[in-house]
Design a protein that fits this description.
Blueprint: E1 2-10, H1 17-25, E2 34-42, H2 49-59, E3 63-65, H3 73-83, E4 89-93, E5 98-99, H4 103-114, E6 122-131, E7 137-141, E8 171-174, H5 175-181, H6 195-206, E9 208-220, H7 233-241, H8 243-261, H9 268-278, H10 285-293, H11 295-298, H12 303-317, H13 324-331
Helix pairs in contact: 5-6, 6-8, 8-9, 8-12, 10-12
């Protein structure tokens, strides 16, 4: 029997936690072929979250608390859960969403379709409904028009260097991704990228990251989400007009990609290229060539124009001190 571990980190999540855990517990899949365990780690809640976790643990044999008194933050808490669990497949869960009842079964179906060898490194992610505070879908999805840029049901490595697609609450990985991921230490990077994006990069570096083109969770917007859904059209327009913000985001994503490649000897040439592109003192020509070659990933609507603008605006970004931790981590 194969094991499924659902990793759930909580912090002052008393209001919605029980509803979320129940939506996971009640998933429809073959229980004769797979076993389900819901591992919950609290990251220092001051409300009734711990009491709710204890009640859930008493009520459901699948629920188990991972005890750790230290506050590790959002990324550190999930890394702790992943390091202390052992399963064939790992799903990541927020504390306040609601999973559609067929989510796990559709993910498992995708894993069965794409895993050809025991050594295959495979990640799977889906879309999600943006939901209101009552977890009722607004009929809008988290990925929106970005789904049109995911070709052949797969997200490639370079595509993840310019825009973030992978939402942790809609991601699952096999144990081979976990083994690769635990070789990295994300806690000291300080570039604002979370575990879910790194997991996607790792799957794309060592294997494949597959996409299920269906919303399979109601991603509740409470006003207190650690990472919320994309802004409204009006706010998005303001963000597009402020192009430097997009370039800053791409700079973080590209550094995350450089860090992942730094530990894979089979991708040395890719690592060297990305490193040179990220180095501002190397001049703009390499960046222009790199962005133009990847223009279809930079922008679906204005690929030539934005790839050129990204290349020209990228250099000043890397003079900021927030990138020094990445440099020290990669190069010692």
């Amino acid at each position: 029997m194969k094991k499924i571990a659902v990793l759930l980190s909580t912090y002052n999540g008393e209001k919605y936690l029980k509803e979320q855990v129940l939506s996971i517990h009640d998933q429809k899949f073959d229980r004769n072929e797979y076993s389900l365990q819901i591992l919950i780690r609290d990251d220092g809640s001051s409300d009734n979250t711990l009491s709710i976790i204890k009640d859930l643990e008493s009520s459901f044999s699948e629920v188990q608390q991972v005890v750790s008194k230290k506050n590790l933050g959002f990324v550190g808490s999930f890394m702790k859960l992943l390091s202390e669990s052992k399963a064939d497949y790992y799903f990541f869960s927020d504390q306040d969403d609601v999973w559609l009842e067929n989510k796990v079964s559709l993910f498992l179906k995708k894993f069965r379709e794409v895993e050809m060898m025991p050594s295959d490194v495979v990640g799977v992610f889906s879309n999600a409904w943006i939901a209101d505070e009552s977890a009722i879908s607004t009929n809008k999805t988290v990925l929106g028009v970005r789904t049109k840029r995911i070709h052949n049901g797969k997200l490639v490595f370079n595509q993840q260097l310019f825009e973030s697609y992978v939402q942790g609450a809609s991601l699952a990985i096999n144990n081979n991704v976990r083994e690769k991921f635990l070789k990295y230490d994300l806690t000291d990077l300080g570039i604002g990228e979370s575990h879910d994006h790194f997991l996607g990069l790792i799957a794309g570096t060592y294997g494949n990251l597959f996409y299920i083109d269906k919303p399979l969770i109601n991603y509740r917007q409470t006003g207190h989400n650690t990472i919320g859904a994309r802004p409204t059209k009006q706010k998005m327009l303001a963000k597009v007009l402020s192009l430097q913000l997009r370039v800053d985001e791409a700079a973080s994503l590209m550094l995350a990609g450089e860090y992942v490649l730094s530990k894979d000897p089979h991708r040395e040439s890719d690592f060297i290229e990305l490193h040179l592109v990220n180095e501002s003192h190397k001049g703009s020509l390499k960046r222009v060539k790199f962005f133009y070659r990847n223009r279809q990933f930079v922008s679906g609507k204005y690929p030539k124009l934005l790839s050129l603008l990204f290349a020209l605006l990228m250099a000043p970004i890397h003079k900021e001190t927030k990138f020094e931790n990445v440099r020290k981590t990669i190069h010692g």
